[in-house]
Amino acid sequence: MEHNEEEKRMDASMADGAADAAPLDPERELARCREELAAESERRLYILAESENLKKRLVKEKEEYFKYATENIVSELLPVLDNLDLALLHGRGNPGCKDLVTGVDMTRKVFVDILSRHGVEEFGAPGEEFNPEHHEAVGMEESPDVAENHVSRVLQKGYRLRGRLLRPAKVMVRQG
Fold this sequence. Notes:
- By secondary structure, this protein is α+β, with helices and mostly antiparallel strands.
- It folds into two domains: 2-67, no CATH class; 71-174, Head domain of nucleotide exchange factor GrpE (Nucleotide Exchange Factor Grpe, Chain A, domain 2).
- It contains four helices and six strands; from the N terminus they run H-H-H-H-E-E-E-E-E-E.
- The strands form two sheets. Strands 1-4-5 form a three-stranded antiparallel beta sheet.
- Strand 4 and strand 5 (164-167) form a beta hairpin.
- The longest helix is centred in the N-terminal third of the chain and has 42 residues, at 26-67.
């Protein structure tokens, strides 16, 4: 009984379609089906390619995130290194601070080693060629023992995290 009802529905829908359209040409119908199949195949390939591109982009973004996740905290710790450097600079001239200077120097070395293991590197030394991408020129000065357009004095060291600039070195440049 179900079978008869299904046949009646199909016959009715065919009759409706037959009334709306002219008799079907099998060659034309086959060509239309092939075009639709080709269009769907192309759409499927496009969606697949988009999906693969999205996966690659997400993997790359995740790698970048993990690579530079420590950037904010490292940037906030750089003033600690600056203060240790200042303590060393001012304490080295005082013989009464010899033991304190030794302790501060050891602390600084341990701190720099830890940062180094996490991809942080210091830069900025007298004699380096001035590079505006890595150095911030605070001023110019005469310095006979340094080449023109080179760093004559470092006021504050610069730091990079895995090649990315965290902070430029503040320097004086030999004028020429």
